[in-house]
Design a protein that fits this description.
With 386 residues, this protein is of the alpha/beta class. It has two domains: 176 residues, NAD(P)-binding Rossmann-like Domain (Rossmann fold); 191 residues, N-(1-d-carboxylethyl)-l-norvaline Dehydrogenase, domain 2. 51% of the residues lie in helices and 10% in strands. The chain contains 17 helices and eight strands. The protein has an eight-stranded mixed sheet with strand order 3-2-1-4-5-6-7-8, sandwiched between helices. Strand 5, helix 5 and strand 6 form a beta-alpha-beta unit. Helix 2 packs antiparallel against helix 3, helix 10 packs across helix 11 and helix 16 crosses helix 17. The two termini are 42 Å apart. Bound molecules: nicotinamide-adenine-dinucleotide (NAD). Nicotinamide-adenine-dinucleotide binds next to helix 1 and helix 4.
């Protein structure tokens, strides 16, 4: 079995170590902070105990998995790794420094990867003498539970590196999709309107938080409404991702952040973790009742859905990923009830174009521009899937 080293023993590093060790790999977990290493080790023991209690695995298997993971502050242990995955703080300079140090330790054929969510892989890869062996391997949180992994080659990456990384991660029983090195890759790009359009609908006074959430869940089949999800992710984290994506897209108005969310974040109304966000999470708090007016609900759902479809279509138009990978990414990375391109076929491409044009004609904002791909398909009467 090949050997993995994980740099960063936080949320993601610990989860990735569990995934690889469960698949039979020996894993070294490294962190500059000993406390974090201890916490990581303790949390893995707890997870394994829970799996044994639930009879998902037996005690012997749990012990074997844990026995495959070593924790160390010393990066020289990376020496024999076949793959190194970095999952440290989201800071380009620090990542670059770590990567140039790692390259001095590992073998020339070791694949070096980053789990970054928002930085450009090209810029991280530029810190390596041999960037052909560098690739993005983007897990979702919690890594052991979320089936999707985005594999992102940088412009410098060799095809051999991409294929090897994909094979290994597939072997960890994950579903891999291939994405271009552009902001948000697939999931964090295509999902933007789920938050952004919901916030805009609220700001216009069309519906309140709970009614918007109700329409997406009840009428759209989404597991969580946008405001519940933002409260779950944390308004600070979600706002920062939105702002980063907006800047990285050279301020394309389609990704414009919302003042509502910025103010929530500034006020410390971060969501579940702070006890208050769009909803209250105190002990005696009760959830407000939605306005279950089906007409309002449909208007809300259709507007968010068509904006999501437009984003997915544009990702395909710009070759960010294949049709199948875009649909797989949204169903397996963020649990959408259907792939958006498949959904677009069901809604009708004509209907999607018409809805986007209604929005564009009403607001005259570039945010509502219809993807050229949808317009082309509408003209030639095509569908995404036949
Ligand atoms: N949390 C998520 O939902 C999520 C999802 C996908 C990707 N990511 C990405 O994964 C990476 C890690 O995120 P996280 O949420 O696990 O962070 P985290 O804060 O939980 O963990 C980061 C860890 O890295 C350690 N660290 C910092 N500098 C280091 C160094 N020089 N050497 C070794 N260890 C070092 C810290 O001590 C900390 O334990 C980031 O790039 C993030 O964008 C996060």
């Amino acid at each position: 079995m090949p050997k993995l080293s994980v740099i960063g023993a936080g949320t993601m590093g610990t989860g990735i170590a569990q995934v690889a060790a469960t698949a039979g790999w020996d894993v070294i977990v490294n962190d500059t902070n000993t406390n974090t290493l201890d916490k990581s080790s303790e949390s893995l023991v707890k997870v394994m105990n829970r799996l044994v209690e639930k009879e998902k695995i037996d005690q012997k298997t749990a012990d074997t998995i844990l026995g495959r993971i070593d924790f160390t502050e010393d990066p020289s242990y990376f020496e024999n790794s076949d793959l190194v995955i970095e999952a440290i703080i989201e800071n380009l300079e620090i990542k670059q420094k770590v990567f140039s140090q790692v390259e001095e330790i590992v073998r020339p054929d070791t694949i070096i990867a980053s789990n970054t969510s928002s930085l450009s892989l090209a810029s991280i890869g530029a810190s390596l003498k041999d960037p052909t062996r560098f690739v993005g391997i983007h897990f979702f949180n919690p890594a052991p539970l979320m089936p999707l992994v985005e594999i992102i080659p940088a412009v410098q990456t060799d095809t051999k590196t991409v294929n090897q990384a994909k094979d290994w991660v597939d072997g960890w029983k994950k579903l891999t999709v291939l994405a271009k090195d552009t902001p948000g890759f697939i999931v964090n790009r295509v999902a933007r309107p789920f938050y952004g359009e919901a916030l805009r609908i609220y700001e216009e006074g069309i519906a309140d938080f709970v009614t918007i959430d109700w329409s997406l869940k009840e009428l759209g089949g989404f597991r969580m409404g946008p405001f519940e999800l933002m409260d779950f992710i944390g308004n600070d984290v979600n706002y920062t991702v939105t702002e980063t994506v907006f800047q990285s897209f050279f301020y394309d108005p389609r990704y414009k952040p919302s003042f509502t969310q910025k103010r929530m974040s500034e006020a410390g109304f971060l969501g579940r973790k702070s006890g208050k966000g769009y909803y209250n999470y105190g002990e005696d708090s009760t959830k407000p009742e939605p306005n279950k007016d089906e007409q309002v609900g449909r208007e809300v759902l259709n507007r968010i859905l068509v904006m999501l479809v437009n984003e997915a279509a544009d990702a395909l138009f710009l070759n960010i990923a294949s049709r199948e990978d875009i649909d797989l990414a949204m169903t397996k990375g963020v649990n959408y009830p259907k792939g958006l391109l498949k959904w677009a076929d069901e809604l009708g491409i004509n209907w999607c174009v018409e809805q986007l044009d209604i929005l564009y004609n009403e607001y005259h904002e570039d945010r509502y521009r219809c993807s050229p791909l949808l317009r082309r398909m509408h003209k030639s009467n095509e569908q995404f899937y036949n």
